[in-house]
User: What shape does this take?
Amino acid sequence: MVSPAGDEAIMGDGVGQTLILEDQSFLNQHSNMEVILFMLAFLAYMVLYVVYQPKKDGEQKENNPRRVRRTESRYRRTRIFDVLGLSFDQCNSFRAFLDRFSSYEEVARAIKLAGITRSDMIIGVDFSASNEWQGRKSYQGRSCHNLHDVSSSKTFNPYQRVLSIIGSTLEQFDSDHMIPVYGFGDKITQDEAVFPFKETGQPCVGFIDVLEKYHRVARTVQLGGPTSFEPIIRKAIEIVQEKQSYHLLLIITDGQIKDAERTGEAIVKASNHPISIIVIGVGDGPWDEMENYDDNLPKRKFDNFQFVNFHQVCSKAKYAETAFALHALMEVPDQYQSICSLGYLTNATPPLTDNNDNTKKLK
Assistant: This one.
């Protein structure tokens, strides 16, 4: 017979083995669950990474058929294409057209051939607070007005680059080289007024002076907002009424404006005067309202507004800065022709026609 003590020992061993097996089973199940959870978390991370990975400006442009079609349509309408004697077989896309120009001199020559021999300039620079973060994608996370890394033209911030490129192309068209330059959107003027780059209120003398005064102002101005183009457009109208000559109003901005209706009304008012408005976007956007102004303001007397996304244009072009200059100015000859037709200029030089002997092909 087995003693009671022996039975208890056997039962104890059985219970112990059962507990051990249950513990091992629990551990195995727990380990399997950790593996499953890890795999699910990893898969979720990969999905989120792919979905939210930001695209480059160039890729976004290529994937937006509406924007590409709009650019191609404008390209096929502009006079500058016709007066250069280029056929669509030679340049069957806007990108191919841009890449034919390798220097500022070629762009300037094309503008002259299209009928522009003289133009005064007015410049407005956006000093709204959004400049601090609007360079996260397009300017390596720095402020668009950053000056700390600027020691030469190779490290210009976006505003300096635009001023330098436009200056190199257009200064020869400005006979007196007197350029009124204003800031807007800072803490003091906000969306109600503008301030001159020179404390005396006098114009800058040439683009070198413009760049020097920008550097001084950008170091000391307090960024503010909100952003509105109405004050700088209003100021441009005052200048044009006084001088009675054709002007280009160059507005450099970092992003979307707050009061779209007010700015739209100002653009419509400007169409009663010999002014071409060119808005250059140097930040991350969004730019929907700018493109809307470019296409949809039916009350205007003529199409007086051109928007250019600086980083998008420069990202793919063979000659980036030259392509930007041409893109910014390509509608100016058509606008100038409309201004002459409306009788805004009494002593204007008539635009060249296709039969004019001065029209030459770009070689």
Notes: The chain has two domains: 8-53, 61-341. The radius of gyration is 31 Å. Residues 164 and 288 are 26 Å apart (CA to CA). The first strand starts at residue 120 and ends at 126.
